[in-house]
Specification:
The structure is a single chain. The protein has about 300 residues and is of the alpha+beta class. The chain has two domains: about 150 residues, Gcn5-related N-acetyltransferase (GNAT) (Aminopeptidase); about 150 residues, Gcn5-related N-acetyltransferase (GNAT) (Aminopeptidase, 3-Layer(aba) Sandwich). Helix content is about 30%, strand content about 30%. The protein has a twelve-stranded mixed sheet with strand order 1-2-3-4-5-12-6-11-10-9-8-7, with helices on both faces. A hairpin with a 5-residue loop joins strand 3 and strand 4. It is elongated, with a radius of gyration of 23 Å.
């Protein structure tokens, strides 16, 4: 019913067919925000050693009595990109018209999920796979439950409508004169382990860079000392329910208290409204109990769940 092959190149007809599939799938999946693959990224990296592409075809099959079978067609693509510590980050996109058939189920039933073989999964050399199911795609849950693939992380996308009454007088835009205090704050929370390293690294890059109108950094001030930073992205993200949304890129506090987090969240209102935005998005780990609680208390609503699966 299906065939599959690792590919490092595509002929013109295959390229046109795969581009059409990925473009249509991206449009089809835009509202629930499921995974997508950019065809231009595929073309640019297909022959690179750090990426692998498994193309899946649906073989010719009967369509109706007294009619010729449907011709062979590309049914989907699995793309792996080498990550850190030997992990391969995988993304799957299946032809929307063929999803009810269970293309991934058919593939896994045929080839399994054994990554312990010397040659890796399906001869790819991959021994550790991780993949995000953006929007918690229902098929990902069924497949991983059936094959006992562990879930290792869950991220919630939360959205909050901007309220006119928000007020946080101790939260201000970070000016050049505040950069030394901001760096000192980041050094302090690095030493104490009060925040995740990726967020601290993003904040350091923002502070070192020139001031950005689209990505401002706000500080929570206690006199001359900074007790928190929040980084914004004012690039509009459309939401059918909330309109034009900005995004909180990171939120860092000295003591991890709810008051600090709440002040930083409320302090984002002024720059968001000045940019003509109507709501703000934040991505929160489901196990970050204090931040989840503050987000709920300040009016954030759940919009999407992303789940990471790992196989090793």
């Amino acid at each position: 019913m299906i065939k599959y092959e690792w590919r490092t190149s595509l002929d013109d007809a295959e390229s046109a067919e795969l581009r059409d599939l990925l473009t249509r799938a991206a449009a089809y999946d835009a509202e629930p925000e499921y995974n997508s693959i950019d065809f231009d990224d595929v073309v640019a990296s297909m022959a690179n050693s750090g990426t692998r592409h498994l193309v899946i075809w649906m073989l010719p099959r009967p369509h109706a009595l007294d009619e010729p079978p449907e011709p062979q067609r590309i049914a989907g693509l699995i793309r792996f990109v080498d990550g850190d510590d030997g992990w391969a980050d995988g993304t799957v996109v299946i032809e929307p018209d063929l999803r009810s058939i269970g293309i991934m189920t058919l593939l896994i039933e045929q080839v399994g999920l054994d990554v312990s073989a010397a040659e890796g999964w399906l001869g790819s050399g991959i021994h550790k796979i991780r993949a995000w199911a953006r929007g918690n795609h229902p098929a990902s849950g069924r497949i991983t439950d059936r094959n006992l693939v562990p879930r290792t992380q869950q991220i919630w996308k939360l959205i909050r409508e901007i309220e006119r009454a928000d007020n946080a007088p101790d939260v201000r835009n970070l000016a050049a004169a505040h950069k030394t205090a901001a760096v000192s704050f980041l050094d302090d929370i690095t030493r104490t382990g009060a925040a995740q390293t990726p967020a601290i690294d993003r904040a350091r890059r923002d502070i070192a860079a020139s001031d950005s109108d689209e990505r401002p950094v706000l500080g929570l001030f206690s006199g001359d000392r900074i007790d928190g930073l929040v980084g914004l992205d004012l690039t509009p993200v459309p939401s059918e329910e909330f309109g034009r949304c900005g995004s909180i890129r990171y939120l860092l506090t000295r003591n991890g208290t709810r008051d600090e987090m709440k002040s930083l969240i409320l302090g984002t209102t002024a720059p968001l409204r000045a940019a003509g935005l109507e709501a703000v998005i934040v991505y929160v780990e489901s196990v970050a109990d204090e931040l989840v609680a503050v987000c709920r208390l300040t009016g954030f609503q759940h919009d999407r769940t992303d789940i990471r699966y790992e196989l090793s």
